[in-house]
Design brief:
By secondary structure, this protein is an alpha+beta fold. About 50% of the residues lie in helices and about 30% in strands. The chain has six helices and four strands; from the N terminus they run αααααββββα. Strand 1 and strand 2 form a beta hairpin.
């Protein structure tokens, strides 16, 4: 009986440990998805994206290919995110105004189940002059780990600064 109790205790402890590890990995994967999204959104525009922006039309094939490659694996509905200016908004503005963006620090913190707060320090550079601002907000993910919404975004005045 004593051996059975010890085995049951060990099995229970192992199950708790494994459950904790899988939840931790899920959280890390979600945070990694958000970090990748933020890197994509605040790095560049690179030559590929500049070439896509130069094409005629509202959404030329080159731009669609760029979105398919860089955003589609990260978000649930890239078309909605594009239409609500959550994808490529700052990249397009940087391109049009001659800036380059680069994140210098990205922090992602789990707030609730599938809800994360983020803060990213963004360097913006033009004509050799570099400045930094902080962009923050919240993202929600679905059970598959795709970004569903971006809310409470504070761009630290980045849009205004890119318009100068």
């Amino acid at each position: 009986m004593k051996n059975m109790t010890i085995r049951l205790f060990m099995l229970t402890a192992l199950m708790v440990l494994l459950a904790g590890c899988s939840a931790h990995n899920e959280s890390d994967e979600n945070a990694e998805t958000i970090q990748t999204f933020l890197k994509n959104e605040f790095t560049g525009p690179d030559d590929e994206l500049k070439a896509a922006f130069k094409q005629d039309g509202a959404f030329p094939p080159e731009l669609r290919e760029y979105v398919d490659e860089n955003y589609k694996p990260l978000v649930m509905d890239w078309e909605d995110m594009l239409n609500t200016n959550h994808i490529l908004f700052y990249q397009r503005m940087a391109y049009e105004k001659g800036y380059q963006l680069k994140p210098s620090n990205i922090e992602v913190k789990k707030d609730q189940d599938l809800a994360y707060e983020y803060e990213v320090k963004v360097k913006y550079e033009k004509n050799g002059e570099t400045n930094t601002t902080t962009v923050s907000g919240r993202m929600n993910l679905n059970d598959e780990g795709d970004i569903v919404t971006i809310r409470d975004m504070d761009d630290g005045g980045l849009l205004e600064k890119l318009n100068q």
